[in-house]
Amino acid sequence: MTAPQPWVGRSRPAVDAEEIVTGAVRYVTDLFPAGVLHGAVLRSPLPHARIDRIDATAARALPGVHCVLLAGDVPVNALGPREVDGPVLAEDRVRQVGEAIALVAADDEDTVRRALAAIELDLTPLPVVDSPAAAAAPDAPQLHPTGNVSGRIAFSSGDVEQAIAPAALVLRRDVTTPSQEHVAIDTPGGVAVVETDGTVTIWCGSQNPGLHQRKVARALAIDVADVRMIANPVGGAFGSRNDDPMPVYLALLARATGRPVRVHMTREETMAAGAKRHPFWTSIEIGFDREGRILGSSVRAVADTGPVITSGPNVMKTSAEMSTGPYRFPVASFDGTVYYTNNANAGAFRGYGVPQVAFAIENAVTEAAYTLGLDPMQMRIDNALQGGEPHSLYRHRVTESLAVRATLEQAAVHPVWTERAQWQAQAAWPWKRGTGVATAIKGVGMGSGTGDAARARLEIDGDGTVTIWAGPNHTGQSIQTTYGQVAADVLQIPIERIDVRIGDTGVVPESGPTAASRSTYAGGNAVRMVCEELVRRCSELELPLQLDPEGTGTKLVELGEASFEQTFVLPDTDDIGLVPPEDLAKYGPHRVYGACTQVVRVELNTLTGELRVPELVCVVDCGTAINPAAMIGQAEGGILQGLGMAIMEDHRLEGGVPVTTSLENYLIPTIADTPLMHVEMVDSTEDSGPFGAKGMSEVVVVPTPPAVAAAVMDAVGVLPHALPLTPERVLSLLEEAS
Amino acid sequence: MRLNGVEIGSVPAELHGMRLLDYLRAERGLTGAKEGCGMGECGSCTVVVDGAAVTSCLVLVGQVLDAEIRTVEGLADAGHEPLQRAFVARQAVQCGYCIPGVLNSCAALLDRVPDPDDDQIRTALDGNLCRCTAYNRFYDAVHDAACERRTDEAGPA
Questions:
Q1: B137 touching A, CB under 8 A?
Q2: Which residues of B touch A32 (CB under 8 A)?
Q3: What is the mean pLDDT of the segment spanning B104-127?
Q4: Which residue of B has its CA nearest to A350?
Q5: Which domains does chain B have, with CATH numbers?
């Protein structure tokens, strides 16, 4: 008999929703402890310069200033173990507009601002490396002792040229995708306190509290155990809280002053200094037979990671794996290079290298269908990678639960797709209409060979209340609600009896990042395991657990069996295919993938170039949706970020100097830009996931830009190759069409 | 100044040059109002001043000395508990940082238009950026709240 599941699979409001709507919740940037000082960062105004002199004497002498910290004041001036991780504070050279040079703490905000202005800074401009092409030039200034190449990943499963020799159609295309800013509405900030025993507590948003704990310990030259990161509540992340150095700044200021210190970055600082989505230049060569079957593809990609490494090579690793899209074909190759430049530092951003290469392959499939006279939906169905099949690049085995084909088939019968011809015919001058489709997969977790793991700790007390400490952390997805639903169904007790705690390195066991679409799958599995362990102990001791009428908690406490921890290690793929075993972590092929197909309607104004997206369909393969309405909310938000990338968002720099500096000139979608969205799920179950769940919150970003491009092609007969589709770009496409 | 229905008396002159947002957060401990851009673009600092939704980062205390000001903390007392409940029930909240501003824009609309249509909701929320959700549930939540308030006014059947 299967146990009932009263909690998993039923929509449940987030546990923190009530205190959000009353304004009671205190974000890390809402904390003003007694005696708190205000801190701020002095940042470089130039993209590349030699620091000739920094003099903080006048700033330090200002009444109310408690400290001005320069590079020499940081015990270990490094944000990571390698030179390319960059310094905490620039010492002899700045390599980006917005790079941190000094930290200041003072009694109030006005004094902080005066102190920043009083720091004397002499800079000599150096030649600016303003693009990957400039970085690769033989006489380019070298941004690191190791050169300007941040990373390269290449792999080939065979001879692509030979495979596509008999093709009916070979496309060779170049596409570009923009730098994108996360625009989490809360900018980085928080509070740090140094206790009398020298331990540091930092309240600062983080998607990877354990990593930030280690970064702080390194910079302050103290034990990791003496650093406590409390990493929520935070107002949004989307990747921006992976690479953020803010916890280190806060800890340094608190240590230097012996007082609590608060920092909250301005939007302008965040626009200049916050990590962005990597801009990509992607080339594809791909061959199709007459029926539209892919025979082989070769993808080359170049990315700009800015002056320090952050996530650059890891992003490209994900691009490599996803360069064959959600398709099954015999031969593929990939070659991607990440360059250092003096542009905005790029790091993790929802989708993590997949939207960029997906734009190349999905555009090619769209164009091939048009050229070969095939239905673009059916052509994708015919090429779809199926569960259990070998991946097209690495030939490793993918999970049986992969249901990309089902997402396509479900989208194919939605009226937004089936009624596209009628809808197009109803367009009224000067508008033209089109409908496009695109599809994608993305891996769940860090990939095979990486030892990716999550942990959970459980304690049951005398009155039978269960407390679970689990990670990954919550940055808006209400993951603690998901953990609670999993726990309640394993334990078969009401969810109100379970208290889930997250995001605090002082009490939560190391569980890795809120990244790689892994939280539900990895953290949910750790919670499942720790609850199953409680059930097992109760059963071994012949103690009842349901509603605990017999004092089970008290007895377990007496027996010393009331508290324990479990680790879930994400399983590797069953068959690593062509990947050399010693290089498994280097390529990190996934076992489990989520999938998503989208159908998008576009209206174009042929006079002004205005582009509107009034309606779209999104079909998700996420395995079991543990909290369906929360899953749909993740999908809708992800789609809107993909739509922003498709039609309006572009963090622009000229000669390394940002042109988009605030929310006045960097626009993200408002409610008026937002389409009606139909989000659906397909029936799928991932056997290795908690109650059959896997991850989905990144893959939903991926199909939107190429689906918009396909809809533009359907409307005006020209396929865009560069994003975003601003009115200017649309007008030049219309010129091309005529 | 009246703040969330309570007369708070005169505000010391040295605070008149403060942004209303900073006054609410630092001087009154009302941290429900958030800062997201400091230039009136994101709407997360939106409060209700004399019935109108206003970005409090662009208002100085000296400009609102005689005004009736309402923040998210005062929503329930102003009869907007149905709106708050609807945002929870519709799962319209993710990270929640924009939500106080969104709720204030919605409440100002409902005070003016008891049963708004989608176009009116869209116009009311055009100045509130949310990066987590895609706004769609805000429509549902406002309609739910309008319906509940209508039912409450009609009294038991």
A1: yes
A2: 26
A3: 98
A4: B132
A5: 2-73 (3.10.20.30), 74-154 (1.10.150.120)
Strand positions, DSSP E, A137-210: 149-156, 169-177, 189-194, 200-204
What are the tokens at A369? 């269908």
A495: amino acid identity, one letter: I
Residue in B with minimal Cα distance to A697: B132
What letters, b where the CB count within 10 A reaches 16 and e where it falls short, cover A166-203? Answer: ebebebebebebbbbbbbbbbbbbbbbbbeeeeebbbb
Whether residues B136 and A636 touch (CB distance < 8 A) is answered with: yes
Neighboring chain B residues of A676 at a CB cutoff of 8 Å = 136
Does B55 contact chain A (CB < 8 Å)? Answer: no
The pLDDT of residue A4: 87
Q: Give the pLDDT of residue A243.
A: 87
Tokens standing for B26?
Answer: 């630092």
CA distance A654 to A465: 58
Question: What parts of chain A have a pLDDT lower than 70?
Answer: 1, 547-549
List of chain A residues whose C-beta atoms are within 8 Å of the C-beta of residue B38: 266-267
Pick the residue with more confidence: A625 or B156? Answer: A625
Q: Do A18 and B126 touch (CB under 8 A)?
A: no
At A192, list the tokens: 């740090």
Cβ separation A636–B133 shorter than 8 A: yes
Structure tokens at A484: 């609670």
- What pLDDT is recorded for position A544? 87
Q: Is A182 helix (H, G, I), strand (E, B) or coil?
A: coil
Tell me what pLDDT residue B156 has: 59
Q: What is the pLDDT of residue B150?
A: 85
Check residue A737 and give its pLDDT. Answer: 86
Residues A687, A301: Cα–Cα separation, whole Å:
34
C-alpha span between A238 and A514 (Å, rounded):
9
Mean pLDDT of B90-114: 98
> What is the maximum alpha-carbon separation in chain A?
82
A78 vs A71, A217, B76, CA distance in Å?
A: 10, 11, 48
| Cα–Cα nearest to A506, from A228, A252, A311 | A228
**CA-based R_g, chain B, Å:** 15
ipTM exceeding 0.95?
yes
Other residues' Cβ atoms within 10 Å of the Cβ of residue A525: 26
Task: Give CA–CA dist B35/A187, Å, rounded.
Answer: 8
Q: Check if the beta carbon of residue A100 is closer than 8 Å to that of residue A51.
A: no
B131 and A668 in contact by Cβ < 8 A? yes
Beta bridge partners of A335: A154, A300
Yes or no, beta carbons of A672 and B84 under 8 Å apart: no
Quick check: A531 and A489 in contact, CB under 8 A?
no
The CA R_g of chain A, rounded to the nearest whole Å, is: 26
Q: Is A478's CB within 8 Å of B94's CB? A: yes
Decide: A318 and A443 in contact? Cβ < 8 Å: yes
- CB within 8 Å: B73 and A477: no
Contact B99, A152 (CB under 8 A): no
Q: Domains of chain A by range and CATH?
A: 17-25+453-569 (3.30.365.10), 31-126+188-264 (3.90.1170.50), 280-447+577-737 (3.30.365.10)
Q: B29 in the Ramachandran plot: left (φ > 0), alpha (ψ -120 to 50) or beta?
A: left
Comparing CB atoms, the residue among A30, A183, A235 nearest residue B95 is: A235
Q: Which residues of A323-352 are buried (b: 16+ CB within 10 A; e: fewer)?
A: bbbbbbbebbbbbbbbbbbbbbbbbbbbbb
Q: Following DSSP, what letter does each residue of A434-451 receive, concatenated?
A: EEEEEEEEEESSS-TTS-
Test the B interface: residue of A350, A479, A514, A671 with most B CBs within 10 Å: A671
Task: Looking at the complex, report in whole angstroms how far the Cα of residue B36 sits from the nearest Cα belonging to chain A.
Answer: 5
Least Cα separation, residue B29 to chain A (angstroms) = 9
Query: Does B95 contact A266 at a Cβ distance shorter than 8 Å?
Result: no
